[in-house]
What we know:
The chain has helices at residues 26-37, 49-59, 72-80, 105-129, 152-171, 188-194, 198-208, 217-229, and strands at 17-21, 41-46, 63-66, 85-90, 130-139, 176-182, 237-240. It has a single domain, classed as Rossmann fold, CATH 3.40.50. The model has no long low-confidence stretch (mean pLDDT 91). The chain is an alpha/beta fold. It is built from eight helices and seven strands, in the order βαβαβαβαβαβαααβ. α1 packs across α8. It has a seven-stranded parallel sheet with strand order 3-2-1-4-5-6-7, sandwiched between helices. Helices cover 43% and strands 17% of the residues.
Amino acid sequence: MSTVTTSTREPELLGQTVVVIGGSSGIGFETARRARAEGAKVILTGRNAERLQQAASEIGALSTAAFDAKDPVAIDRFFADLPTIDHVMVTAGRPYYGRLADMDFSKIREIMGEHLLQALCVARNAVNKVRPGGTVILIGGTGGRRPAIGMSIAGAVTAALPALTANLALEIAPVRVNLIAPGFVDTPLSAELLGDQLEKRRDWLRAKLPIRRVVGPADVAALAIHIMTNTALTGATYDVDGGQQLVTPS
């Protein structure tokens, strides 16, 4: 007679603290939820205090901070009040699409610097707040890799972030720095950007992507947790787009 033994897996982030900047919805919220499931204490930030509090209550976050992550002073102030943490993920911000003829250059100057300056500010603060072996996770994208009309700004940021990630990984070591580059992800932000074209986009992706489904926040969150727990990973860009780069756009 054989005896079947079962083992209970210990949560991979037990006792660790994860900060998610832009954690009230979408990719950030799903990553925070998954980190909690893996035993982490979670600190959420976002611009909308009411939505942030609702998200925090839903997952049992340790604390929240409402501020605009585009403001480097606000980022510095937030980190100054933090204890030592293990991981920080930056999901705040949104892409910009538009033709050259229609661009408002006064706004473009701010948009161009937003993602890069935000990453630099977080990395500089991480030096003194993230424990050795912990990680800074940035979010980029794969869509801007394919040249197209209206993609100048998105393409420039897409190209810059992997280089920034690699250099920061050297400069702030032993804190690790990694970049997740999603394609289309079915989030509230995507719904806002696409409006009544959302379902058409979903249908196209289901038909054309090699995985035959739409990438969701959980797909990105699973990768983020892996990056947090695998301490051999630093300076790299990880695509999670369901093969979107492999197919001809509609």
